[in-house]
Design brief:
Helix content is about 5%, strand content about 45%. By secondary structure, it is mainly β. InterPro entries: ConA-like_dom_sf, Galectin-like, Galectin_CRD.
Length: about 170
């Protein structure tokens, strides 16, 4: 993408088009097709050590919260097991995580060195699956680890995203 750092940083989605700060269209391959929130998608082959999930988006202007969950299927009744639920809560400046197995939520974890999300700004969350844990990176910085509570990693085959954000890329 051409342009100065300031021009690249000033990208906004307006009326379904990606424009730079000067209002002219720019190359938008990474942003389309538009990903609709709430989002539910399949993780091909499920999770395994070494597999990484990438979520890129833009936080809404006045956010309350947004969530990213990796689940074992899409079932609502009975609810699918949640291997990890990440929830960014703006009022408390917390990035909480938990899991839900057989309908029972585990112990919530919330300690973080800093809150990485800024209203109306882009972000990049990477969830790296390792043998004993998920490693969570935000904008390239490791934020925390979450140790697996679900033994069969390959059963973790669905990603769900909801809340106050626009999705720009999943990978």
């Amino acid at each position: 993408m051409a342009g100065t750092v300031a021009e690249r940083d000033a990208l906004k989605i307006e009326d379904g088009h990606l424009n730079n700060s000067l209002g002219s269209p720019v190359q938008a391959d990474v942003y389309f097709p538009r990903l609709i929130v709430p989002f539910c998608g399949h993780i091909k082959g499920g999770m395994r050590p070494g597999k990484k999930i990438l979520v890129m988006g833009i936080v809404d202007l006045n956010p309350e919260s947004f969530g990213i969950s990796l689940t074992c299927g899409e079932s609502e009744d009975p609810p699918a097991d949640v291997a990890i639920e990440l929830k960014a809560v703006f009022t408390d400046r917390q990035f909480v995580r938990n899991s839900c197995i057989a309908g029972e939520w585990g112990e919530e974890q919330s300690s973080i060195p800093y809150f990485p999300f800024i209203p109306d700004q882009p972000f990049r969350v990477e969830i790296l699956c390792e043998h004993p844990r998920f490693r969570i990176f935000v904008d390239g910085h490791q934020l925390f680890d979450f140790y697996h509570r679900i033994e069969t990693l390959s059963a973790i085959d669905t990603i769900k995203i909801n809340g106050d954000l626009q999705l720009t890329k999943l990978g």
